[in-house]
Specification:
Blueprint (H helix, E strand, L loop, with lengths): L8 E8 L6 E6 L8 E2 L2 E3 L6 H13 L1 E14 L2 E13 L7 E7 L1 H9 L7 H7 L7
């Protein structure tokens, strides 16, 4: 007898730096990762491209307009397969919205402190380090 498997959910995230080299983070309002800091992003809607989803999700969660660039990497967290793209912010005003209770720019020291306090989504710091995309500042 075959046991049905739960389908993978395709998601996207945006890796965005400000001119000072700080990384854009949001505090998740809902699971997975409720209350923890993460890259902004979310589910790809049916018929939507990854690029369109990144633009929509970052606008909804951060108030920023972005242009998605190259795929930096992919991670799987439970049922969620997350494709993270380098993005350039082109406008908007940083404001938490949709699935975010807070949004902020994080420098290297801040990101390390969040990691040490256990406030980052699981393995985010390690993943960003392995992809060589930690904040420069």
């Amino acid at each position: 007898m075959d046991v049905p498997t739960r389908a993978t959910i395709r998601c996207v995230g945006g890796i965005v730096f400000d001119p000072q080299g700080r990384l854009l983070l949001i505090r998740r309002a809902h699971d997975p990762g409720s209350g923890q800091w993460s890259l902004p992003g979310g589910r790809v809607e049916p018929g939507e491209s990854d690029e369109a989803a990144v633009v929509r999700e970052l606008r909804e969660e951060t108030g920023l307009d972005v242009i998605p660039g190259t795929l930096v990497g992919t991670v799987t967290r439970g049922r969620f397969e997350i494709h993270d793209y380098a993005c350039a912010a082109t406008g908007g005003v940083l404001t938490a919205g949709d699935d975010a209770t807070e949004a902020r720019w994080s420098d290297a020291a801040d990101l390390s402190a969040l990691e040490a306090a256990g406030e980052l989504v699981d393995l985010l710091y390690v993943t960003l380090r392995d992809w060589n995309v930690l904040p420069r500042a």
